[in-house]
């Protein structure tokens, strides 16, 4: 018969912990722990052995024969009963802390005459997670759509407050109308090819062909609404269609007024950053000169004379240019909300591009002769739009792959490139898939930058 000495007894006693539930302690007489698997047993005629089906692990059920004792046992009991519900951290005397749920009802037993100063409880806990019901999440795309609608209305209100041809001389009035028509032609040329694949194309063609420019010029609010209608896009575009719509709108953006970019003579006319253009290239974005044409349409004729009428013409054209720039930006934002982002770098490029463009619109709104019109000012509406689109891109790009480039210095096999970059050959197939220009997996040509997904 084994003898447990005092030292051995103190060892296991010292490991015991005071039982508690949600930081309320109690004493324990005995513990039962039920665990195992849920099984289904099937017995069939003329089959000596049954068939057993495992249904997965069963819930761990822990039963305590607990008690509270002492002159203040009633206070202890009240504190314990107050927390006997829901989930929490259970301190098991021998197993330590674990997250559990109180399972079913509990029983409290008291015998004041024979065992005063003590209350006994039968407690049952199960180790389980809270049921994960579907949790509501804010739709960032819906927020972008709402912010775009508000910004568009604000731009129309601003146009109505700042654009007027009523005080212009005849030649100046006609000059502004001619340039407005030129601007509409450039706008339509830029977006019409995108709309050809959409069900709304015939309606848009009809609106453009029958556009009553002369009449609407006297009603700036209606003029702005009709121009905005030409740039409307459905909310059910495919990703490729959304990219086409974004590309068309992006090529109509006004070039930044202040930029750190050094633009060479042969670079894109809208002075798009090379890194951003490269990020868009995989989606088929091709820069064109529509922006330059639109800028030319709204540039006043040079004259050595600065008369009041010429100043009014210049201001009217500046207001129109700002409105056109605003509505094509909103078209781009609506398209971006429907784009399926390919990688993290593409999302970063879109964030940077849209952030700079909306900042340009904010600067322009501060220079409006009549500001603060409408239910929401142009400045506030643009800030809300900027916040919504940047939040949307950030939310949708959180789990995207991040790209880098690698340029081989000599002919190299794909497995060597994978091992050199990541210490394993496991990513060789991915490198080949990301770079269709590689003709043979053992012969990756030198001097050509490869697109490679980063793996930490």
Rounded Rg: 36 Å
Main sheet record: 8 strands, antiparallel
Q: What's the overall geometry?
A: elongated
Average pLDDT value?
86
Tally of distinct domains: 3
* Total number of helices: 15
Tally the beta strands: 12
Question: How much beta, percentage-wise?
Answer: 15-25%
Helix-strand pattern = HEEEEEEHEEEEHHHHHHHHHHHEHHE
Tell me the distance between the termini. Answer: 59 Å
What portion of residues is helical?
40-55%
Which structural class do you get from the secondary structure elements?
alpha+beta
Low-confidence stretches: 259-270
Pfam families: DNA_circ_N
Domain DNA circulation N-terminal: 16-99
InterPro entries: DNA_circ_N
Organism: Burkholderia cenocepacia (strain ATCC BAA-245 / DSM 16553 / LMG 16656 / NCTC 13227 / J2315 / CF5610) (Burkholderia cepacia (strain J2315))
Concise overview:
Helix content is 46%, strand content 16%. It has helices at residues 6-15, 73-83, 140-162, 170-195, 201-209, 213-216, 220-230, 239-250, 274-281, 290-297, 308-336, 344-366, 378-397, 414-422, 428-434; strands at 20-21, 24-25, 27-34, 37-42, 51-57, 60-69, 87-92, 96-102, 107-111, 115-127, 403-406, 450-453.
Keyword list:
single chain, 456 residues, alpha+beta, Elongation Factor Tu (Ef-tu), domain 3, Membrane-bound Lytic Murein Transglycosylase D, Chain A, 8-stranded antiparallel beta sheet, two-stranded antiparallel sheet, 15 helices, Phage tail protein, DNA_circ_N
